[in-house]
Amino acid sequence: MTRPIPPTTSDDPPVDQANVRRAAFAGLVGTALEQYDFVIYGTAAAIIFNTLFFPEVSPAVGVIASLGAYAVGFAARPLGGLFFARFGDRLGRKWVLVATLFLMGIATFAIGLLPSYHQVGILAPILLVACRFLQGFGAGAEQAGGVTLLAETAARAKRGLYSSLVFVGAAVGSVLAALAWILAQRLPEDALMSYGWRLVFFSSAFVTIAAYILRRKLRESPVFQETQKARIGVQDTPVGDVLKNGRPSLVRVFFINMGSNGQSYIYQVFMGSYLVTWLGVEATFIPKILLFGGIGACLAAVVAGRASDLLGRKPVILTVLIFLFLFPIPAFMMIDTKEPFLIGLVVVIGFMMAGYATVGSQGAFYAEMFGSRYRYAGISIAREFSSVFGGGIAPLVSSALITWASGSWWPVAIYMMAMIGLSIVGALLSPETRGRDLRLEEDALTEKRAALVASRD
Question: How far is CA 60 from CA 49, 196, 248, 270, 277, in A?
Fold first, then answer.
C-alpha cells in the first residue's frame, strides 16, 4: 500500500496559484533553453561537427572526438552547480535562474560564431570546447533551480505534477532542436556546412529572451522565504552543510540519477551517431525521430510526475528503472532489423522512458530528499556530479565500445544495464518521500531513522 499524503495544514505556506503557474511556465521555458542548447550540440556532434572541427581523423574517431567535446559540457555542470548552489540557498532561486539563463544563451550563440578547423586549425576545436564548458557551467544549476522552486511553490498533493513540468520544458527544447535541424537540413549541403548550422545555434537567442521575460517577474518560493531563518547562525555554506550532514541522501540521488541520465543521453545522442556511422542511416532521419521522441516525452514526464503524486515516488521510480534495465537488448535487436519504423520506435520509447519518465518521477523526490537549509545545493551537487558519470561520458563510452567491438552492440547493452542496475539499488535504499514537509531542516533519511528509533522506544 502507498502512504497517504499528509493533509495540508494551516501551518503550510499559502499556495498562490497564479505564482505557481508563473513559476511553472518560467521553469518550463528556461529548461527548454537548456535542453535546446544541449540537443542542437548533440545532434551536430553526431552528424556534422566531426567534419567541421575534427576533419583529420576517420569518421568513427571524429564522432568520438566531437562527443568528447560534448562531454566537457557535462564535466562543467557540477562546477557550475557548486558555484551557483551557494547563491541559490542564500540569495534565492530566482537570482540563480536568471544568471544561468544568460550564461547558457550567450555560450550557445557563441558556438555559431566559431571558425571551422579549415579556417583556423587546432584553435577551432579548442574554442568549441571552451563554449561547451560555459554551456555546462550555466546548466549545472538550471534544472535544480527549477525543480526546487516549483516543489516549494506547489501544493504538496500536486508537487510531483508541477515538478515534472520542468522536464516537460526539456522535452519542448528537444522538439524545438529537432525542428531547427530539420529546417537546416533542407538547405543545400554547401549552405548547411557554411552557414546553415550556425543559424541553428543563433536561434537560441529567441528562447533566451523569452525565458528572461518570464523569469524577471518570478517571486521566491514561500518555503524559501520562511526557512531563511534556519540559516541564521549557520557558519557552513550550503555546500559545506550538505557535504557534512546530507551525504547519505547525496549518495542515493547520485546513483539514481547517474543511470537514468546515462541511458537518456545514449538514446538522445549516441543512437544518432550509431545509426549514421555504423548502420548507414541517412542523417536527415535523426532529427525526425528525435522530434517524435520529444513530443512523446512531454506526455511521459507529466504522467510519471502525476503518478508519483497518486501512487508514491518510490513505486513509480522503480517501475521506470526496471523497464529500462530490461529494454536495451530487445531495443538493439529491433534496431538491427534496419526497419525505419522499428528504429524510430526504439528511439522514441527510449527518449520517453529514459529521458523523461525518469526525471518526471524523480523531480519532486529529489526536492523531498533534502532538508530546507541546503536543498538547492543537495540537488545540484547530486544531479550534476552524477551527470558527469552518466550522460556526460555515456555517449563517448558507447562510441568507444562500439568501435572496439567492430560494430557489435552487446558491450553497449551491458553498459546500459549496469548503469540502471546501480540506479535501482539507489532507489531501493531510499525512503518514500511523497507529501513530505519541505520546511523541515533534516533530510528524509534522517527523519525516517528518527521515526524508527521512536517507534522502538
Answer: 12, 23, 41, 12, 7
2 within some domain: no
Whether the CB-CB separation of 302 and 171 falls below 8 Å is answered with no
Does some domain include residue 318? yes
pLDDT tens digits, residue range 200-232? 999 888 878 877 777 776 666 666 666 665 555
Write down the pTM of the prediction.
Answer: 0.79
Question: How far apart are the C-alpha atoms of 428 and 232, rounded to whole Å?
Answer: 35
- DSSP per-residue letters across 114-150: PPPHHHHTTHHHHHHHHHHHHHHHHHTTHHHHHHHHH
Report the sign of the C-alpha dihedral through residues 379, 240, 425, 76, in that order: positive
Range of the domain at 39: 17-227+236-456
Alpha-carbon distance 38 to 439, whole Å?
33
Domains of the chain: total: 1
Q: What are phi and psi of 13, to 5 degrees?
A: -60, 140
CATH number (domain holding residue 23):
1.20.1250.20
Residue 1 lies in a domain: no
Q: Is 271 helix (H, G, I), strand (E, B) or coil?
A: helix
pLDDT digits (tens, 9 = 90+) for 362-390: 999 999 999 888 888 888 889 888 988 88
Closest CA to 137 of 104, 164, 114: 104
Cell numbers for 443, please give them. 533530510
Q: Dig out the grid coordinates for 265 from the structure.
A: 543521453
Distance, in Å, from the CA atom of 164 to the CA atom of 169, rounded to the nearest integer, reads 9
Q: Which residues, in sequence order, are CB contacts of 152 under 8 Å at separation 6+? A: 93, 221, 222, 223, 224, 367, 375, 438
Give residue for cell 562527443.
Answer: 67
Distance, in Å, from the CA atom of 238 to the CA atom of 111, rounded to the nearest integer, reads 33
Answer whether residue 3 is part of any domain: no
Phi-psi region of 435 (alpha: psi -120 to 50; beta: other; left: phi over 0): left
Q: Nine-digit cell at 106? A: 550567450
Phi, psi of 338, deg, nearest 5: 65, 15
The C-alpha R_g of the chain, in whole angstroms, comes to 21
**129-133: which pairs have CB atoms within 8 A and are 24 or more residues apart?**
129/69, 129/72, 131/107, 132/41, 132/69, 132/70, 132/72, 132/73, 132/76, 132/107, 133/72, 133/73, 133/75, 133/76
Helix (H) or strand (E) holding 394: helix 394-404
Classify 21 as helix, strand or coil: helix
Three-state secondary structure string covering 29-85: HHHHHHHHHHHHHHHHHHHCHHHHHCCCCCHHHHHHHHHHHHHHHHHHHHHHHHHHH
Pull the grid cell for residue 330. 530487445
